[in-house]
Each structure stands twice: as C-alpha cells, then as structure tokens.
Fold these 3 entries.
Entry 1:
Amino acid sequence: MDDVDRRLISALRHDARASLSDLALLLGVSRTTVRGRIERLRDRGDIVGFSVVMKEDARHDPVRALMMIGIEGRGTDRIVRQLSGLPAVRSVHTTNGRWDLVAEIGTETLEDLDKVLANVRRFDGVATSETNLLLATRKMG
C-alpha cells in the first residue's frame, strides 16, 4: 500500500460516497486510477466494506464508552462470544499492547453502562479492564 492508497482510504473514510471524479481531483490522479485502486484494495481485502452512520444511531446511544479488557489464559474466543451476545456491545476489537480486547458500548444512561461494565468484569477470564467515556464525536467514518 503506497501513499496514494492511504490518501484514498482516508478520503473514503471521510465520505465513502464521494464520486470517482472528486476523489481523482483530490488525489491528483485519473478516475481510472481511482477506480482501479479501489477495486484492487477490495480484491486484496484491505477494504472489506462500506457503511452508513445515521444520526439516529448516535442519538440511540447517548452514553458511549470504550472498554479495554485484559484476559488471563486462553479465553479470548469465549469472551468475544459473550461480549457479542450483549445488546449494549456495539463492536469488539482485538488489539495489541496492554489490552487484549476493546469493546465499544452504547447505553441510554450511565446506570445502564455501569451494569454492563459490572457484567463484563464478572466474565470468567477477564483479569483487568479500563473504561473511557466517549464525550464527543468530531468525525464519523
């Protein structure tokens, strides 16, 4: 992946519906180049899909948080399944470094969030966790 690919991905993250012409102008390349690069990135699996974020989605979860989770032993797959079964868990990410998983959580109230966090902390194999509230979203996508 070169600099043009990285700038193309950045532009698509900002506006996945941007026209090929607009992307070409922004990147300083031809429409054919943009089309070919998008196809190549999709074929290689670098781009796995496009999504839409609705205003209603943001209103639905007025309290949002990221919960970083440290796991002891080999229970990661089981804990991912348990997290995925919780309605308040919007996404689960594996990661490197200090934390094994990051769970994105959305609830109606702080009390609801507290209940979800307490529930996750009781999962067998969850050794440590740290949670950060998301205060404001400056950029979606």
Entry 2:
Amino acid sequence: MTAAARASLDVVGLTDHDTWAGWSEAAGQVPASGVALLRGVEVSASRNGTSVHVLALLPDPERGDLAALMERSRRGRDRRGRIMAERLAEDFPITWEQVRASAGPGATVGRPHLADTLVAAGVVTDRSAAFQTILAPSSRYYVHHEAPDPIVVVEAIVSAGGVPILAHPRAASRAGQGLSVEQIGELVDAGLFALEADHREHDERARAEVREIAARFGLPTTGASDYHGEGKPNRLGEHLTDREVFARIEDAGAIAVIRP
C-alpha cells in the first residue's frame, strides 16, 4: 500500500494467487497510505495444458463455490511446488523448506518463490532469469499444476458475486498457447466480465488482438501491473484501468472498495 502511494495511485487491487489472506493487512494500511483498496484474487485454471489465470475482483468469501475451489487449487499448487523443489534440489542447493519459507504464512507457493530461493542460493541473478531458464515451461524441472477448467472458475467467481476478468490472455511466456477466441467466448457465456489488455507481457500486437476480441464480445478491457514485489521488473501503476471501467467493476462486485 505504501508503494502504491509512492506510485501516485488512488486505488490499487490486491489479487494474490488463490488466496485472500492479505486482505485484512492491506485494508489496515488504507488510512495511512491514502490509497483505496480493491480486494480480489487471481484464480488458477487450466485447459488442455494451457495455463489460464482469471481475476476475481470484489468477491464475497462467504458466498458460492469460490472458497472451496481456491482451497483445492492451493493444495494443488503446494504439491506442484514441492515436486519442483525436489527436482531442483537434485542439482541446486535449495530445499522445499526454504521455498515454503520464501512464500511466507498464508501464501500460495508458486514459481516466484522457487525463483527467489534460487536467487538467494546464487543460482540465478533474478526472478526473470529463473523464469526464462530453469523454471520455464520447457524445462525438465517444470511441473504443470492441477487446476480447474476456466469455465468452472468463472462460474465459481460469479457465484461469489465477484467480477471475473481473464488475465494476460496473450502473454507469450505463459504455459500453452492461450485460449482461442471460441474458448474465450465460452467464458463470456459463463459470465466473464472483461479481458486484460494492457500488461507488460503483451506487445502492441497482442494488446490490439485482445481489444479486438473484447469488442467482438462487447466486453471492456483492463490494465494491470501484475506487480510481484521487487523480484520482477513490473512496477506498480505501469498499466492502469479506465475510470469508467473501474466504476463498472465496483458496481458489479459483491463487496465494497475500501476507501481512506
């Protein structure tokens, strides 16, 4: 929240992977930071080997099927993280316990935590280097994690009163080739609200394609920094969402944006 204030943001979204454990702590920083908080989650999904991330903005944790689905995804990510850590430990000086500690209490273990552990061990220089080599989907250390179909995820988000947005649908570095237009249409039928167009891993051609797909289905587009701390080059506020689209998200969500 302090970093968001330094970036001159008036509102920031907290969307950790498969957990809302950080919501309370972030909300407690709203008055001091002067930055409004949009609470959300980035939910993991998969379709035929393609990794899909769906943002759930302003969902109610007490409603619908989202909490149970997230718990299953979190357990799957932990299993995947342990297997990858054990494979890496055969060749590099790291342990699962170190990876788990890097994630911290309540966090879902993911590749960023594996990358941070490799950086701490001096194996690579930063997260980006780890993602491009040792932790790339083509690497022998990589493990695909069990995740529900994106249609199931979108339906679960809707059941919790959340606003589902397809994150970075044309990011070249993600596992798989991305969902087809027809598959995105299936998500729209299930209740998808918007597509994320402005993202560091979308070049101009990808952004134009996402906007074209969104227009085809009558959806708005959003932007996001996908900020993961200092371990990646992404910076808070480097991609923003139009105020009118944000107002629509706020109106559609089950819980309120927390304001100073």
Entry 3:
Amino acid sequence: MYDPITMKINADPFILSALKEDITSEDVTTNSVMPKARLGEVDLICKEEGMVCGLDVFARVFELIDDEVEITLFVKDGDKVKPGEKMAKLRGDIRTLLSGERTALNYLQRMSGIATYTNAIAELLEGTGVQLLDTRKTTPNNRIFEKYAVRIGGGHNHRYNLSDGVLLKDNHIGAAGGVKEAVLMAKEYAPFVRKIEVEAENLDMVKEAIEAGADIIMLDNMTPEVMKEAIAFIDHRAEIEISGNVTKENIARIKDLGVDYVSSGALTHSAPILDISLKNLRPIN
C-alpha cells in the first residue's frame, strides 16, 4: 500500500489510535485463556466474492503489536477473491493474533468492500472515457485508507482535503455573493496552479461559471434533460463533472453524456464490507 516511510508517517498514527480504542488497558478475554506467550497460526479466509484491498494495513496492525509476527500473503491488493479462499497465514504469539484480530479485520473488510463496490461501478464506465471520482464523504480518520481503496478498485481520487484544491459549493457561492464573485475571489487568492471548480445547480449558474472562467463545472443533482442543456452550453470551454446521489444502480443514465468525470460519495459512505475472517487458530508445539 505504502512505502515504509509513508506508512510510518501517515498510516501508523491512525492504526495505533484504532488499537488504543480497542485495548484501553488490557485484552481481558485473551489474557484469561492465554496468560503466557505461545506460538500459533491462523488463516485469513475470504467468505464472499469480491476484490481484496488493505492487506498492508491488516498486516501492520499485528506488526505494531509485535514485530515478530510472520504474515504470509497468498493474494495482493486488487486481486479478485472467492468464498473459501485462503488469502494469508499468520504465525506468532497467540496473544498478538487474538488481540489484533478485530482491528485488522475492520480495516481489511472496509477497504475491500470499498474496492469491490468501486470496481463494480468502474466496470460500468469502461470504454466511456469518464473518470470515476470519490469525494470527501469518508469516515473520520480513515480517509487515507478509504481513498486508497477507491484507487485499487479502479476509481480516482478527487480532492484529498480542503488544502488540495478550490471547489466552490453552494454555501461558498452564497458567502461570496454569487458565482462570478466567488470565482473572481478564488482566482485572486488561490495559487495560479490550482484549478477552480464550481458546483452548479441550474443552467443560470453554469452560464455564470463559464463567463467567470471556471476550469471545471460540477453539474450537481440535475435532471438528465438539464444536464444535456448544460453540457451543450459549456461546449468544451470547461471540464465537466457530474455529481449527486450517483450509485451503481443509476449510473447508466449519465455514462454516455460525454462528460469528463462523475463523482460518487457512495463509493466510501455506502459500500458494504467484504466478509473476511480469521479462522482455524491452532497452537504450535
């Protein structure tokens, strides 16, 4: 997922926080049945069809508890998996395997679910030239993991955070006094290397955004009829993104409109987890 430096700087603090959430003082259950260190093995088993993602994070959970744990992977991120498939084998102190299980699986199941759902939509867009984008509608403190899962699934990342680009939404436009005013203020303030995107809810806003020189126009929650009008008016003078309750079930209505991007918050906020378990724990010696 990441090189070791990136993992330690960006991912480790979140993983450690998740472990602290699950273990405040001790793992009472594990310490009850396993008071002393004992070597053991356990299998990582897939229980439903999907795309696996987050194996490095899964492994890192155990490594942060005990750097002597050994993890042998039989699949890699982006692989399609099926029910009953053994994806990995873990070997180490049984206390480590038990205490890290839930946190590690939470990451792996969530990230694999996002990758699986994203991939299903990306396949529907194949051949259209439309890029599938995620949004900032992510689980707090899990954005780094969820946006990575989108990429593994065949999607692309929109802004990572508020420092990443200019996106003038309805409330920004209201605060500025209008589309034209908001774009002009953004051009004056933002670095020239930043593109300026405007969220437009109707044709009048689209026209204002074009006149003000917006780089990207997001057609938000428009009917297919109004979107077609807006796209014809824009006429390649700006890049076009479609947004607003886009899901696997309804993307067919917009995929052939000839736009550049389609963004979907559902990729991260509505993807179901992929069912994965640690099974067959057995002591060694």
